[in-house]
Amino acid sequence: MASRITRTTRQWLIDALFQLMKHQDYATITVEQIYTTAELSRKTFYRKFKSKDDVLNQAIADWLKDFEAAMQAAASTDWEAFSSAFFLYWNDYRNQLTVLVQHHLQGMFLADMTACAPALPWLGSQSATRQAFLLTGLAGVLVAWCTSENPTKSLNITALQAEIAALMA
Description:
The protein is mainly α.
């Protein structure tokens, strides 16, 4: 397990990348800009990451690791509980997800999210096809929600759940 200092340093670099992405195209961001924004040295950056892509991949991996733990803790046993826990968790990451979408990088996130489906309560008990359908659908709604003008925390989840439940029947 990484030390507290390593986790903090990594988080500073992740935060710096997302700060830069709010104002600059991802493709033009340099490693130097990331470590400078984080107020760290080049040597420190390369002790933690190989590239800016590694920084982004680490951010996504951290989110999904915490997502799996949150979903396990929620122990959702049905569609309504699962989808509610899903949106409650991702509400905290709305700003970062919005930045990914603005830079057309949501595909990295969605692919990794789909891979974690079997480990999720309730969803993991579904067939692989149903897992892919449900998680891809939820992720699509998540992307639309993150980029909407005035998203509400609840996302009118009750109406959405009813619509999807009808499709699943």
